[in-house]
């Protein structure tokens, strides 16, 4: 990035209090894990555990990805090892989405075609894709995230440079 005078500037992702974002995200995750183990109420522990998996893990992966992308922007030559390292958060986030989406689809298909479990409240026959819930979008998002992470190094070289 260049400022009005044409000098190169770097963007630091530090909160207004001066604490790096990654440190804040790590502390919040540690507190969530501690609270899950401390609370005796199973409902509170369950909500915290679900929030940890569905909110904290993606936020952590995206924060790490943000740091790695900023570091990669300063490198002169990308090697395969560096590209693989920098794409790990994207691949992990895509894998989580892919697995959860696939699990939801399998859950619906199992309950519709094999044996209906008491926990399943969906239709007995699949009338539309709506019975799969968010499983299909999660599956497609995971596939797209993994595909874009694996091909990011090749497309980054073909991108045109910003005009000065």
How would you describe this protein?
The longest helix has 35 residues, at 80-114. Mean pLDDT is 75; it is low at 155-160. The protein has two domains: 1-74; 78-158. Helix 2 (42-73) packs antiparallel against helix 3 and helix 3 runs antiparallel to helix 4 (135-150). It starts with 20 loop residues before the first helix and ends in a 6-residue tail after the last helix. Helices cover 66% and strands 0% of the residues. The chain is mainly alpha-helical and 164 residues long.
Give a summary of the structure in a few sentences.
The protein is mainly alpha-helical and 164 residues long.
Radius of gyration from CA coordinates: 21 Å
Number of helices: 5
Q: What ranges have pLDDT less than 50 throughout 5 or more consecutive residues?
A: 155-160
> Distance between the terminal alpha carbons, to the nearest Å?
9 Å
The major beta sheet can be summarized as: none
Q: Quick check: average pLDDT?
A: 75
By oligomeric state, this entry counts as: single chain
Strand tally: 0
How much strand content do the residues show? under 5%
Category from helices, strands and their pairing: mainly alpha
**What is the molecular shape?**
flat
Task: Assign a percent range to the helix content.
Answer: 55-70%
Q: How many structural domains are formed by the residues?
A: 2
Give me the strand/helix succession.
HHHHH
């Amino acid at each position: 990035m260049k400022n009005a005078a044409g000098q190169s500037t770097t963007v630091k992702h530090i909160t207004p209090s001066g604490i790096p974002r990654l440190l804040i995200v790590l502390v919040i995750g540690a507190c969530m894990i501690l609270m899950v183990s401390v609370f005796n109420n199973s409902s509170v522990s369950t909500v915290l555990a679900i929030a940890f998996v569905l909110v904290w893990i993606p936020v952590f992966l995206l924060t790490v990805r943000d740091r790695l992308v900023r570091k990669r922007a300063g490198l002169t030559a990308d090697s395969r090892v560096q590209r693989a390292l920098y794409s790990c958060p994207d691949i992990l986030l895509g894998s989580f989405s892919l697995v959860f989406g696939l699990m939801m689809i399998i859950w619906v298909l199992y309950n519709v075609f094999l044996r209906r479990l008491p926990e399943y409240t969906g239709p007995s026959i699949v009338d539309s894709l709506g019975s799969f819930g968010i499983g299909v979008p999660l599956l497609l998002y995971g596939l797209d995230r993994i595909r874009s992470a694996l091909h990011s190094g090749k497309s980054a070289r073909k991108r045109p440079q910003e005009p000065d």
